[in-house]
Amino acid sequence: MMRVVVSGIGLLGPGLDDWAIGSEHLRHPDAWLSQPTAVPAPLRLPATERRRAGTVVKASLVVADQAVAMAGLDAAQLATVFTSSTGDPLNCHLLCEALAAPGRLVSPTRFTNSVHNAPAGYWHIACASRAPSTSLAAYDASFAAGLLEAAVQCLASGAPVLLVACDLPYPEPLHALRPVADTFAVALVLAPSGPGRGMALAPVPESAATPAGHAGLEALRRTIPAARALPLLQALAGSAAAGVLLDGLPGQSLHVEVDAA
Is 2-195 in CATH node 3.40.47.10? Predict the structure, then answer.
């Protein structure tokens, strides 16, 4: 198994405004109330860029900043892995509308935001970072695929890596085909060693994923791809050693063992 250290965490989701609030609710889920996710303005982006950016960019940057601040690292020096199953659903919807219209006119801003690595691009430009970056998607396994990729890069390079996962709901009619309940974003700074919470991970043959352990949180886990991270986040929020299985690529699960705090 690969061993890494989680030195920073960012979180944003229904009733989970940040890691400080979210970790308390994950430890004591009976006090958690599901409320629509409110995405704050990412302060790292200038006002002009905030107006151009979609919600997936804003939510991704908000949790990335939380995780980097907690880790106490220089964002410009961090390699990144950004993962999302949905990308920017509203932008996809509006592009489809534009292409279905007689003029088929697409604005340059909308085209720019259509690429899957748009959140990574906004982040690295805002941080003035030339560090390596990977953007990927793996349907419901997108978080696990991103976590595995980030851990491999972290150990291969011997340097910390920032992982960001974010998913949003689609507008209708796409929502009927791919129902995603709400916006959910999570960021982890993984380091090869040093202060933080140790964990080991490895792909294993496919098995039932670990549930979130609370009916409302489990509903989020099942209906938002990025929220597949919830069992791992619950383990990181607690103090005891814990093992979880995350939904992985076809035929696989991702087994993660979290050390005691």
Answer: yes
